[in-house]
Design a protein that fits this description.
With about 850 residues, the chain is of the alpha/beta class. The chain is built from 30 helices and 17 strands.
Amino acid sequence: MKKSGLIVLALVILGNLAVWAWFNPSHTEQSWTGTIRGVSFSPYLRHQNPLKGQHPDTDSIKRDLELLQDQVGSVRTYSSTDGMELIPHLAWDYGLRVTAGAWLDHRRERNDAELRNLIRNAKTHRNVDRVIVGNEAILRGDLTVNELIGYLREVRKRVTVPVSTAEPWHVWLKHPELAREVDFIAIHVLPYWEKVPAESAVDWVLDRYLQVRKAFPHKHVLLAEVGWPSGGNRLEVSAPTLVNQARFVRKFLNEANARGLDYFIMEAFDQPWKRAIEGAAGAHWGIFTADRAPKFPLSGPIVEVSAWPVQVIAATLLALFPMGWFLRRWRGRLRFGGQLFFAGLIQAAVSLAVWAAFTPVTQELPATATLMWGVLFPAQLALLAVVLINGFEMAELIWNRRWRRQFLPQNPPADAPLPKVSLHLAICNEPPEMVKLTLDSLAALDYPNLEVLVLDNNTLDPTVWQPVQEYCAQLGPRFRFFHLGKWPGFKAGALNFGLKQTAPDAEIIGVVDSDYLVRRDWLRALVPYFSDEKVGFVQAPQDHREWEGDAFKTMLNWEYTGFFHIGMVHRNEYDAIIQHGTMTLIRKSALEGLGGWSEWCICEDAELGLRLYQEGYRSVYVNETFGQGLTPDTFDGYKRQRFRWAYGAVMILKRHWRALLPGKTSPLTTGQRYHFVTGWLPWFADAMHLIFTLLALLWTAGLVALPKYFEFPLTAFIVPTVGIFLFKLVHSLSLYHVRVSHSTWPQRLGAAVAGMSLTLTIGRAMLAGLFTSSQPFLRTPKCESRPALIKSVLMAREEFLLLTALWLASAAVLWRYELGNAEVLFWLGVLAVQSIPYAAALVVSVVNVLPSLNLPGRGKLVLARAS
């Protein structure tokens, strides 16, 4: 590898390391090296749930107590039934004091059992130094104050240790009569639920503690629950992160030690079962995970993801080979900026993939989030592949040092021998006056040896096809008209009929659409390339006319133009262009050798080009306009045309996939296989967009209706989704700026909107193509009347419904959640991004029916050879 390549590698690797470090900052907080005074203790394992009658056995409780014995002095329990009554006895063996609890609710018989066991333990076990009768029973409304007082009096009469009940701090202030019935005040102070910023949470806790002490100066105050969750949904400015939890716990422990506070950290172990009653955050209060691993160190630096060095090493090593291969292979063809750009893009894509892959390791995922990860991770890999494909196109077209295959129009001498050309014009229900204009342009061709076959198929109205027949007769013997009536095989069937009627001495077949006006020198400029026997077809770009001044047609024109000046130019470098069924010239012997056009395929032109490549023929792409047709007149026609192209692409892939596989399965070059697969892969991304939209709507319904079971989607998928959309926009606009420089910025933006408006149409076509094989050929009508405004909405009705659904989903999220919640904002951003293509469709369909605008006609092309 050259020195420049090594420099690129070094810059990318160092940049990647810097980005990972920036997103994983190291935080400091005063270390804690002492013993934690107390922790809330619920010994349920990950798979256990008391709400379902699943409780830990004695051995697992022992293991938990053994784990805690050297780190805490006391544990607080919440229940004295279902095996929890064994904890005081078991804790004695590990030198742990116990603040024993009894769970009280509206079930009287269970309450009696709880109290019996609590009283027995308080009398029997010397390590039970106090008891708590009920936990937030007043807050939940399970008991009235008088009912709870009755339970408190009963217990106080029968035990000698201090007795209290546990409620949030504000409940004690609201019901001071409770204080007269207890020996100490047990308060819960959890600033996360109070929407307090993590930075000021400890100070807020201390303020609440002092507030309660002031209200009850003669009572000892116990902070019976104090803590911060490491995960869950943000509550306005309260962010439940690992770093925030670690910093809170460290700071609180030091403050509590300095002030001599009595407390229980909430809590020892994460309890996934609490998600059902407290939401996502309820599962993440432990200082240990549900698998009993420490979440964070009590001394030294704190990082949100301690495994990030492993991730960055994995990402670097995984990206090293493809970056090295790329830099070796393309060092002579790309300038330094292109090498740095694409190598950096490889590294970024791999880093995002690694970040997402590690999500189940670095985060505690519930079942729903795990399911989401399983669905979204493969999909994200596919989207990242699309990004790399688009990025490679950008690198080659923006930073290319030289073109390897650049073909210019030929200018043979006037007396040079030229092969006979047979031009085939397939028409179906086309306006006669439009077809006559096309015939006039063909009659004016400066080419001495040609014939024109007009193949009218499936036109049943004589008033439509007979005027064309009569006009052909007027143009002379070179023009032959065939009326086929009902004819099978779509356009391919008509072209195959024409192939059989072609003059025996014709060597070249040309195909022109019925709305095209061709340049006089079209054949003279391109036919000479067939002197090379390996050339199977010669292609000139499609272009359009009569769009100037019409906003809708202007958008379409520049959207089409981008493909021919960007995608086709890139594909031509690898001799892998898409043959399209107008302005194309084909070697007759090659076409006959392949058995003609494929009537099973509704994109017979692109399919033929692939077969020609498989036979070892080469193509020539001359990126100059030699003919102009008409854009569709309606948004509905525009969509139908693109649906046919996308559906046909899937048909081709399904038929020829073996030839596109790596290896020596066909004569196709690596570049040809790459472009025929990756060229259509972005259309599969549109299908994924449709699937993601439906999943996003379903997930939003879960967030709104079942918030305890649904979390906002993982950041590891939200950020890349939005980022990929932005990258695609930059990709489009930057390539238009470089390769379609004769367009203006408004025209480029209009082209981008037009392209986005087809997202649903393409997505539906790709999905339909995967599961069906008999989609009918859809004509693209020309010269249609302009629809009414209401029809414009009907033309985009499916997009309108999806757009409405996404906006209603956003409104439901805003209604259900606080706007200050960062996860809410992220998700709203995703819904907004998902809705953009559907909004674009509505915009384009409405623009379609607006009165013609006096738009500038910059970029108008004329059918005269450039001097």
